[in-house]
């Protein structure tokens, strides 16, 4: 159905972005967007399985620990803390913070950050009408907001 699916985050001191990328054929676009919308709504509604959260925590901790082995990543981390005037957390503190995340807290935050009225969509492809129609199916009114 999709040849690429991933999520990403960009974090700043006062804002940020959470995104989901889906690479698919035109004929699969609506179904893919429905699945993404369903999963976002499920997380925001509190349907987070403990096993999935544990797996995500372990993945994140592993990626952070591995990034500490890269000199450029370490220097980038130091530079970001300096530029943004934020506390530079130790690896142990970061791991403790990740371990402290509970499903209820995750869902509460997701309900705010992933609220339907806060979502946006963008697409690249040959048929803008098809894209707008697919987005309209999962988020009525969003294409009209973009045109305004």
Mind explaining what this structure looks like?
The chain has 148 residues and is of the alpha+beta class. The protein has seven helices and two strands. The protein has helices at 29-44, 50-67, 71-84, 91-99, 103-113, 128-138, 142-147; strands spanning 2-11, 16-24. It has a two-stranded antiparallel ribbon.
Low-confidence stretches: none
Alpha-beta classification: alpha+beta
Number of helices: 7
Mean pLDDT, to the nearest integer, reads 89
* Cα distance spanning the termini: 32 Å
- Largest sheet geometry: 2 strands, antiparallel
What's the SSE pattern? EEHHHHHHH
Secondary structure tally: strands: 2
Strand order of the largest sheet: 1-2
Approximately how much beta-strand content do the residues carry? 5-15%
Using only CA atoms, what is the Rg? 18 Å
Keywords:
57% helix, 148 residues, alpha+beta, 7 helices, two-stranded antiparallel sheet
Write a brief structural summary.
By secondary structure, this protein is α+β, with helices and mostly antiparallel strands.
Describe how the helices and strands are arranged.
Layout: E1 2-11, E2 16-24, H1 29-44, H2 50-67, H3 71-84, H4 91-99, H5 103-113, H6 128-138, H7 142-147
Antiparallel strand pairs: 1-2
Helix pairs in contact: 1-5, 1-6, 2-4
């Amino acid at each position: 159905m999709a040849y690429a699916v991933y999520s990403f985050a960009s974090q700043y001191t006062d804002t940020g972005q959470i995104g989901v990328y889906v690479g698919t054929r035109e004929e699969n676009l609506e179904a893919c967007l429905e699945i993404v919308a369903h999963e976002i709504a499920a997380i925001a509604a509190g349907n987070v399985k403990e096993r999935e959260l544990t797996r995500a925590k372990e993945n994140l901790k592993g990626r952070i620990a591995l990034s500490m082995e890269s000199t450029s990543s370490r220097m980038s981390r130091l530079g970001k803390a300096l530029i943004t005037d934020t506390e530079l957390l130790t690896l142990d503190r970061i791991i403790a913070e990740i371990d402290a995340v509970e499903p209820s807290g995750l869902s509460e935050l997701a309900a705010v950050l992933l609220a339907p009225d806060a979502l946006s969509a963008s697409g690249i492809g040959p048929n803008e009408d098809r894209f707008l129609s697919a987005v309209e199916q999962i988020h009525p009114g969003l294409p009209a907001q973009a045109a305004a």
